[in-house]
Amino acid sequence: MSERLLVLVRHGQSEWNLKNLFTGWKDPDLTELGVAEAREAGRKLKAQGFVFDIAFTSLLIRAEHTLDLVLEELGQTGIPVRKDQALNERDYGDLAGLNKDEARKKWGEEQVLIWRRSYDVPPPGGESLKDTLARTLPYFVQEILPCVLRGECTLVAAHGNSLRALVMVLEKLSPEQILKRELATGAPVIYRLNADATVASKLDLAA
């Protein structure tokens, strides 16, 4: 039986990360730094000897572009890629497109902090982290995890909050613990799973 390998990569820096804007389901592309981060992720994975069988990503360009660059660096652009809205970033609703400082002026620092850092309080018209988990986790269990457990080396390029959903389950974190968990842009996290889908080992390739 080959190893059960799952690699998660948060997209590289986007144009709106740089401008300190709430992004959510808006669709800006990567910055030059984001492109460099994605390529570096590919080089790190190549140095580890990874050969992927399948990849998953969201329907947003910053994650798709990151995946394309990672696979290009690996020389593995021909593998099957599945794209699904279930892996999209958390929807920030009325906050999307706003500068984070502007949002604080409009709604107050405390309220914006609650929307950003609480587990189950959504911003107006948007999703809480709990809502994001509710759409991401079933997709992970039904589509991604079976590939890993079959021994297919699996790569997921997605977003800070959609990937947190997967990390929460893999690492058995509480709602309080997952709120404190940050995922660096363009930094692969490698999980080796046991046959029962528990984590055998974890390696974070953040610089």
Question: Would you spell out the secondary-structure blueprint of this structure?
Answer:
Blueprint lengths: L4 E6 L4 H4 L13 H16 L6 E4 L3 H14 L6 E3 L16 H8 L1 H9 L11 H21 L4 E5 L1 H11 L4 H5 L9 E5 L5 E6 L3
Parallel strand pairs: 1-4, 2-3, 2-4
Antiparallel strand pairs: 1-5, 5-6
Helix pairs in contact: 2-3, 4-5, 6-7
Q: Helix coverage percent of residues?
A: 40-55%
Strand portion, in percent?
5-15%
CATH superfamily of the domain at 5-12 and 26-89 and 133-204: Phosphoglycerate mutase-like
**Residue windows where pLDDT falls under 50 for at least 5 positions:** none
Task: Specify Rg, calculated over alpha carbons.
Answer: 17 Å
SSE succession: EHHEHEHHHEHHEE
**Could you report the average pLDDT, rounded to the nearest whole number?**
94
Strand order of the largest sheet: 3-2-4-1-5-6
CATH second-level architecture of the domain at 5-12 and 26-89 and 133-204: 3-Layer(aba) Sandwich
Q: What structural class do helix, strand and pairing data support?
A: alpha/beta
Q: Under CATH, the topology of the domain at 5-12 and 26-89 and 133-204 is which? A: Rossmann fold
Counted by DSSP, the helix tally is 8
What overall form do the CA principal axes indicate?
Answer: globular
The total strand number stands at 6
What is the CATH top level name of the domain at 5-12 and 26-89 and 133-204? Alpha Beta
Distance between the termini: 31 Å
Largest sheet data: 6 strands, mixed
